[in-house]
Amino acid sequence: MDALTGALWSSTAAIGISALLFLGANRLFDLVAERWRLFVAVVGAMSGALSFGILIGNRVLDGPRVLWIAAGGAIVACLALAPGLFANHRLRLAVGVGSGVLVGLFLTFVVDAAVRPTVNTIGLLAFVGIACIVYLISAATVGRIRPGGVLVAAALGWTAGCWLLGDIGSGSRSSMALAVIGPTSLIGAALGAGPIRTRPDRDRFQHRARVGTFLGPALLFVVLGLIVPLVRTIYLSLYDARGRNWVGFKNYGEILTNDRSIDLADWANIFTSRLFVSGVGLLAVGAVVGLRLGRRRGRVLGAATGSIAPALVGGSLLMFAVFSTLRGTVINNLWWVIVVTLVSTGLGLVAAVLADRTRFESVAKSLIFLPMAISFVGAGIIWRFMYIARPPQKPQTGVFNAVWVGLGKLAPGTVGQAVGLIILAALTAGMAGICLFGIRRRQSAIAIGAALSALPVLYLAYRLVGPGLGGVEVGPLGQPIGKPILFVQEGPFNNVWMMVVLIWIQTGFAMVILSAAIKAVPGDLIDAARIDGADERQVFYRVTLPTIVPTVIVIVTTLIVLVMKVFDIVRVMTNGNFGTQVIANEMWQRTFTEFNLGLGSALAAVLFLGVVPAMALNVRRMQRVRL
Fold first, then answer.
1. pLDDT in tens, 122-144
2. Strands 472-474 and 480-482: what pairing?
3. How far is CA 593 from CA 258, 585, 597, 609, in A?
4. Are residues 232 and 271 in the same domain?
5. 204 and 323 share a domain?
6. How far apart are CA 260 and CA 190, in angstroms?
7. 576 & 514 share domain
8. What distances in angstroms separate CA 397 from CA 390, 392, 402, 484, one per listed residue?
9. Pair 230, 271 in one domain
10. Does residue 232 form part of some domain?
11. What is the pTM of this model?
12. How many structural domains compose the chain?
């Protein structure tokens, strides 16, 4: 109850403070047009007080907090006001630079010696150059490059170069002066470089300042939470395990040449695996059917369910043959990306189409979407208990192994075997009826799908009557004991069993988005296609599916970004053992378990580079839609 009360009070306080800040910012910008100097003084005092408060909070300044905060507000307010007191442009610039130098000197002598940084001149100049280039590029895109903006960007780059690259606490007073006076003088020069603002200038500034103020916090959090860590990570990836000695691209070379990342030693076994042979056979069947259909329609290949379905299944088997033979962290990540993305999108599309045609649409969609409410950690724990395999002598508590061992104990001539055969016979009869329905209605997709679905049922019936399902084995005394399946311990398909968890979660996401896209397809197009004689299959493939292709691309790119970063499920279920390691989990282990900052940062950079193409594709698509 105390925690709930505390959370309630915290939420209320956060909402109240946000509202006060919103109202205060609006009232502050009302001063721009009529009382410009008061606005500059207030903004300077607030900035100074906040800056000195941060310094006090980090124990850079010692002494009475209220006094330091008041002094900081007064000093920065004077720095902001001083250039505006003079009409001559050169005099304003000189006053601004001089005020900045004085503020820097003041900080040099009052800041604690324990935080003085050493200055790396080359790194400092590099950061300043990068900051200026970033500003020039961003300003050029909007067609507004200002000298003051260049100076502020240089000040930010100077600050970052001194305090991020330097060794804190090992610097001298001169290095401290260089680290502080440089940015403050540049900011003072920026304040003095601009012209005296007229009333129209202040009106324009008021509009831009309102927009910048309310977007600024979000952009600041993006910079501090994404851009700065990204730059820091790339920087650390070029250093050794302690982050001190430059090693260049050695860490990246280790990732690409290490057998733990990419192991191609068994590549020749791909062509001898049963998956490869089966995949080639199904591709051949699809090609033969496509050629025959093409001859009837006057084409080289005819696209229909009879040719596409075997080709898709054959291609999937070939993919599994490749990924189940090649090993390594990067290979596992590619396997996750391809399988989870394609299967989740495909199942989501099927669920969206079927759910829209049922009377219980909302209930069906709710049940399919429900796993999205579970965290990845929670889902990993749930499925770990479902996959768990206990020793053969003990009862199986995992759902799948309990069913598997239970089926294996159905001995010939028992009631259990008879019940199992009745259930399998009923399923086979139902599949046969659906197949006949598809043949009569000339719905090849339904007929082929029912026939393919009946094959596993017939196989189970054969195993139940003949050699048994294999869920038990004979013990040393002749008694049957359980023979559980090690779902997460036996490779390489333990990766697939973990992929099922993410597919189970993300299918609901794909279904909801695709269902909304299908409902948004213009009814006139569908009615026109039906009037022209198109059946339901042709309407879906020729009208609905081409219309929702942009939505499918969005889902695919979103899932690629998500799956590339998969971490929680692997961490909870195997922790990367048994050949299930992925990039994100290895990054965690190298950085926070082995304390190898260089290799861990390189793995993070590789992960980022893998996500960038999908993000760029999404951004480019959104820009095209906007145009």
1. 878 888 888 888 888 877 766 67
2. antiparallel
3. 19, 11, 10, 23
4. no
5. no
6. 52
7. yes
8. 7, 11, 6, 11
9. no
10. yes
11. 0.71
12. 2
Count, residues in the chain: 627
Degrees, nearest 5: CA angle 126-131-137: 125
- Cβ burial 393-420 (10 Å sphere, 16+ → b, else e): eeebebebbbebbebbbbeeeeeebeeb
Q: Does one domain contain both 229 and 315? A: no
Residue 453: both structure tokens together: 């679905």
Q: Which CATH number do you get for residue 326?
A: 1.10.3720.10
Residue 168: strand, helix, or coil: strand
Residues 6+ apart with CB under 8 A from 154: 128, 131, 132, 186
Contacts of 227-230 spanning 24+ positions with Cβ under 8 A: 228/160, 230/608
Do 48 and 135 fall into the same domain? yes
Over 90: is that where the pLDDT of 210 sits? no
The neighbour count for residue 55, using CB atoms within 10 Å, is: 19
Q: DSSP states of 447-498 as a string?
A: HHHHHHHHHHHHHHHHHHHTT--SSEEE-TTS-EEE----TTTSSSTHHHHH
Q: Which of 424-438, 441-455, 574-588 has the lowest mean pLDDT?
A: 441-455
CB 156 within 8 Å of CB 131 = yes
Are residues 167 and 121 part of one domain? yes
DSSP 263: B
> Are 177 and 276 within one domain?
no
255: number of CA atoms within 13 Å, CB side? 24
Please give the share of the chain, as a percent, with pLDDT higher than 90.
Answer: 11
Distance linking the first and last C-alpha atoms of the chain: 53
DSSP letter at 540 equals I
Domain range enclosing 510: 267-626
For residue 246, list its beta bridge partners. Answer: 239
- Domain end among 193, 214, 236: 236
Q: Is residue 250 part of a domain?
A: no
